[in-house]
Amino acid sequence: MLKLQEGNVWLGRAAANKAEAIRTVGRAMVESGFIEPGYIDSMLQREQVAATYLGSGIAIPHGLPAARHLVRATGIVVVQFPDGVAWADGERARVAVGIAARSDEHLQVLANLTGVLGDASAAARLARTSDPGEVIAALNGGASAPAAPHAVAPAGGTSIEVSSPSPHGLHARPATALVEVAKRFRAEIAVRHGEKTANGKSLVALLGLGAVAGARLTITAAGEDAAAALEALGAAFASGLGEAAAPRPTQAPPAPRDRGGNGGGNGGGNDGGNDEPRASHARTLAATLGYEGRVVVGISASPGLVEGPAWAIQRERVTVAETAADPAVQHRRLDQALAGAAADLRQLHDELSKKAGAAKAAIFKAHLELLEDPDLVAAAHDQVDAGHSAGWAWRKVYEERAEGLARLDDPLLAARAADLRDVGRRVLRLLADAIESAASLPSHPVVLLADDLSPSDTAKLDPKQVLGLCTAVGGATSHTAIIARSLDIPAVVAAGPAALDVEDGQACILDGDMGVLVVRPTARDRARAEVRRGQVLERREAERLDRYKPAITRDGRRVEVVANIGAPGEAQQAVDAGGEGVGLMRTEFLFLKRESPPSEDEQAEAYTTMVRALNGLPIILRTLDIGGDKHVPYLSMPAEGNPFLGVRGVRLCLERLDLFRTQLRAIFRASREGPVRLMYPMISTVEELAKAMAFTEEVRREIGADPIEIGIMIEVPSAVMIADRLAREVSFFSIGTNDLTQYVLAMDRQHPTLASQADGLHPAVLRMIERTAAAAREAGIWVGACGGVAGDPAGTVVLAGLGLVELSVSIPSIAATKALLRGITMAGAEDVARRALACGTAAEVRALVQGAQEGAA
Question: How far is CA 695 from CA 191, 664, 686, 690, 699, in A?
């Protein structure tokens, strides 16, 4: 192992400024035989890319990867500046560790150095000691860093023993209750009775077990939330699955883990039915989390815990006349609307059954039962006989009954009210005289409830007015979720119709970490929430204080954490948040919501403003990425049947060279003010890249600008498959994990049914990323990521382990992402990434990462 030698420690030096200090460090490295003199220039250039100040008075000046040929031998020197040297953001470095690396032999010294960073007194001693031996002892350590622990999933998962419920065994009703609990979890669940084993999420398979009353059953769960699943299933059996009470499990299930965002469930609100089993699961989860109020279960989309009054925002207002002249016509209209809604529900059930299975489609069968309720239909016809229109009569009847149910304390009946309202609205739309959009908020801060929100709706939210967000549909990787994270608004998605069955002004707690909405919280709930909120704030404050420290893993590997931004003012926010540059600047903000394209001067001013705000940190400007899914009047783009497979990204730029030229000229003008990188979106062929680069070079020569780094986004499978060829032409890759995920899995992340399954940690997507990273390494270029997965804690670990050296995340996620990386070893991340590639599902990957992190804690 590399050892720091006494001759490589220079004590008691002085420097007028950072550049002089770096040259002093470089001279020490030259005299030690580690580098050629030319490497010093690269060390100075490195500071322009990203400051090398770590914290606690310690800096680690080193060169750029392109200058490795000037490294003669791997080595480290330490130069002490007792009076300090102004280094970055007002911080003064008193110890500079110069690094010359041709291999990874220096990493253990860096690992020891990161240990010193956490001990202010140790760092201070190094800054004033006159004994080189003390520096050597601190940095040589004396023992290798401990290996990252391995998390090994138990073969076959974890099991509990239960008894089939009395008095009739596992027949249709209790089996349905079991399925409804099981399907809230991502874990794979199996139920064994004798020699037969059934899928715990399949009603038909469970009925095939033939388990009579009191029969012994073994429930096995494997996956990221297996422990929570067994806890909920054990409690469900203990309560009798809706039958008489049954004995408790003979083996207590393991305590559930705090999943920090999965809420122990997998989109509980969308998976079919808000009846007793769902209410039972909500009660079980409430007990697990310690909540006493009514719990609505969803998926965590943005972390955070808030409390405030609920406010439901409807995407539409249905207008109906109160009276009508001809009752016979209205009776006919009502019958036709009921028949039409029933046909829609049957079609939805059939489609969803094919896509996601019968269990997930069961909600539409339950809705059909409500729609065909004879008392409800008869009451509506009675109102028509009284002279009212079919629409008015129907709305009066279903709203009265739903409101009556919602006022009851029984969560089972409250859940039925949500179903009734959902069915009622479906029929009402078919009876409407007019349907208008309606979106308004009160003047006071609220927890916003909605069926769904478009990305543009979400982007308009004011974090001062919207404390948190809960939607009935959606997924954790949808645009809505991503924007909520960027705004630092806690959010829960896929919570089902129950998310809308809350009276405006009703007190609630939105737990974005666990993915639940708590309605009518008790005083104890509020007290617990306040404690947890304090813990979160304490952690965030620690992350904020360390936000300028680079993300160097415990074994000395660095990952640069940069920002995704979409407006000029966000550049300064990114710097203030600890960002080491901008990894994705979406230039579309200049082109949308206007009647004519922005001029060259307008664009140049915007780009230059951002470059100057970054003050030497790099920025990646992505060229225009607009397609047929966005309305831009001056582009005159025809509507496309599938805009995600049409003229978008670089294809549009090559179609509209006038727009492309203007933007490129503005970008090159801004590049004179600082380090600018250019990135093309949606490259799918070598020909597209060649045309774009040739045109870009033409414009560069035309304007007389210096060359800049050019890279591409890897977003489509074709680009991955020819990544080795594309890598020869560019300086870097940036993987757009959001689009790559939807193209690889063929799942629209805005789809109401599929969004929750479009997970960027799916092994198919990870294999695409691994192939891309390998091609980049082979070509000697760097690769980063700028999609939602980069800011996902599990994604951060896996992407780093796959070899990505830059992660571009939302501004609020920067400090937490850097803190996470500083807490892991790269060796451990690489091991997790290797095993993730062999997984079969995204849930397995998340469980793998969770287990590794818990094992390392």
Answer: 62, 9, 14, 9, 6
List phi, psi (to 5°) of 105. Answer: -70, -20
Task: Name beta bridge partners: 562.
Answer: 808
User: Helix crossing, 842-856 with 793-801: angle to 10°?
Assistant: 90
- Give me the percent of the chain exceeding a pLDDT of 90: 35
More confident residue, 219 or 120: 219
User: Number of C-alpha atoms within 13 angstroms, CB side, residue 211?
Assistant: 30
Q: Full-prediction pTM beyond 0.85?
A: no
Q: How many angstroms separate the CA atoms of 823 and 809, rounded?
A: 18
CA distances from 25 to 6, 57, 557, 809 (A): 15, 15, 21, 33
Select, from the ranges 58-62, 302-306, 324-328, 546-550, the one with the highest average predicted confidence (pLDDT). Answer: 546-550
822 and 814 Cβ atoms separated by less than 8 Å: no
Nearest to 423 by CA among 408, 401, 404: 401
279 CB-near residues (< 8 Å, 6+ apart): 411, 412, 414, 415
Determine the Cα–Cα distance for residues 78 and 60; give it in Å rounded to an integer. 9
| Strands of the sheet with 158-163, listed across from one edge | 158-163, 216-222, 188-193, 196-199
Which uninterrupted H or E stretch holds 92?
strand 91-100
Rounded Cα distance between 626 and 588, Å, is 7
Angle, CA 747 vertex, CA 742 and CA 751 arms, to 5°: 115
For residue 54, the surrounding DSSP H or E stretch is strand 53-55
To the nearest 10 degrees (0 to 180), the angle between helices 172-182 and 358-371 is 120
Other beta carbons less than 10 A from residue 128's beta carbon: 12
Count of other CB atoms within 10 angstroms of residue 347: 11
pLDDT tens for 575-625 read 999 999 999 999 988 887 777 899 999 999 999 999 999 999 999 999 998
Integer Cα distance of 675 and 89 in angstroms: 19
Residue-by-residue DSSP string for 7-45: GGEE-S---SSHHHHHHHHHHHHHHTTSB-TTHHHHHHH
Q: Which residues are catalytic?
A: 62, 171, 479, 786
Residues 6 or more apart whose Cβ sits within 8 Å of residue 262:
186, 224, 225, 299, 300, 514, 515, 846
Distance in angstroms (rounded) separating the CA atoms of residues 94 and 91: 10
Alpha-carbon span 810 to 820, nearest angstrom: 15
Q: Work out the burial of residue 780: count CB atoms within 10 Å of its CB; fewer than 13 is exposed, 13-18 middle, 19 or more buried.
A: exposed
Least confident residue range of 66-75, 320-329, 434-443, 696-705:
434-443
| Phi and psi at residue 480, to the nearest 5° | -60, -45
